[in-house]
Amino acid sequence: MKISKTTIVEFLSKITLTVAGFVSTLLFARYLGSGVLGQYFLLIGVLSWLEFAGQLGVTKAIQKRVSENELPAAYLGAGLLIQATIASLLAGAILLAGDYVNQYLGASVVEFVVLLVLVRLGYGYVTAGLRGQHRVATAASLETAATVLQAGLQVLMAIGLGLGFLGLIYGYFSAFFIIIVVGLLLISNRHRPALPSREHVKKLLSFAQYSWLGVLKTRTSAWMDIIVLGIFIPQSLVGIYGASWRVAVVISLASQSLWQTLFPAMSELNANKNTPEIRSLFEKGLMYGGIIAIPGAVGLILLGSEILRIYGSEFTQGGHILAILAFSALFASYEGQFRAALDATNRPDLTFISNLLFLVINVTGNIVLVWQFGWIGAAVATSGSMLVSLVYSYTLVDRTLGVTIPIGEIGKQVTASAVMAVVVVIVKEFTKTQPYYFVIMTITIGVLVYSLTLLVLSLEVRTKAMEFADLLVN
């Protein structure tokens, strides 16, 4: 499958994933309340960190080594062996710390936390294996199926059966267990994991020793603020902050789809020492990386409170939080591409340095700023640390590949976003006294204005739009 078509599949999968997540979160907020939603976000935050401890960069290393097409079955076996060993040790550690886990989450659920960690590790293994096999679209479809199934089962159990918080846990576990089974069958259909040699394990760990910090960086950017907020503010406000974050990350979906698609392609090109083609692919990625993120950030800044009103009137107080987090998602849209380029060119040592810088600023900033300013401090710390990481990652990639930033195309996206902003402000004035769902009309008008303006301004976008239309039809 061509890269452009794979990107479309990846993006459409993420859109479906986002819609499923939005609808389920909306239902949880309206039927279970911000308190239960906050408790659930704290659980997922804890789970995310435990998942990191169970992976330690192994999944990224699996994707990298398998994508090089040199004895992929042996690397899949090595990854499975390492992952299973770490998972066993982690499960025991969680049970030993059970009282602290239960106290933080406000419920006796440590046994369920163990089960959730195990299925998350299994899910990470199968998606890494599929992406390493260059089956990016398959992995994206599997991810979509997992989220849709999870949302459906959680709504059924938490709301339909009235199980509340426990229903959210049951639905989560059931969905990912099913997906793991399907994923293992798909991986084995092409490469059945084989017994690895010591050399395979060593090469996998040699990449993981650097890539683990990238995973930690991802966890920190997504969940450090939630974890710290759980100490300082009520769970109801954590629920509002978490809902705001979930809305903000939507604008980075296109960029995520792009660099996840380009990574295995650039990795294979690097194995063949084809640096010019890597540079060309990367610069194309930068050209389209902000095509949704830039207008999306503008829209969230202008319509934050109106969008959150969909969840319920109590959520509107998070409008200013959403506006700040929009910047974080925008910066992440580009930063992720720089990080993927460094990993694909087998420079995890440089990614390590960039991620370490982000971690120091993010963790320190969250603790200090949340302590001083509450949830606004968390949003500022998250956005500020992502900006620093973006700037530094750019310097590393420029030093490695010598890339050229497509200023002209990015400028056209900014101009189209400015035109959209003017129209949105005008429409907002006419709909501000209307019911909450009128924000959908405002968003739709903004999307149409931006799209039409960008098509007029950019020949590159017009050409690519025609190509995408042909791909979808054919």
Give an overview of the whole structure.
By secondary structure, this protein is an all-alpha fold. The protein is 86% helix and 0% strand. It has one domain (3-405). The longest helix is centred in the N-terminal third of the chain and has 53 residues, at 3-55.
**Helical/strand content category:** mainly alpha
End-to-end gap: 13 Å
Task: State the low-pLDDT regions, or none.
Answer: none
General shape: globular
Main pleated sheet = none
Beta-sheet strand percentage?
under 5%
Tally of contiguous helical segments:
18
Show the helix and strand layout.
Layout: H1 3-55, H2 58-67, H3 72-96, H4 98-105, H5 110-132, H6 136-160, H7 164-190, H8 198-232, H9 235-248, H10 253-271, H11 275-289, H12 293-308, H13 319-344, H14 348-373, H15 375-401, H16 407-431, H17 439-457, H18 459-473
Helix pairs in contact: 1-3, 1-5, 1-6, 1-8, 1-9, 1-10, 2-3, 2-5, 2-8, 3-5, 5-6, 5-7, 6-7, 8-9, 8-14, 8-15, 9-13, 10-11, 10-13, 11-13, 12-13, 12-16, 12-17, 13-14, 13-15, 14-15, 16-17
In short:
By secondary structure, the protein is mainly alpha-helical. The protein has one domain. It is built from 18 helices and no strands.
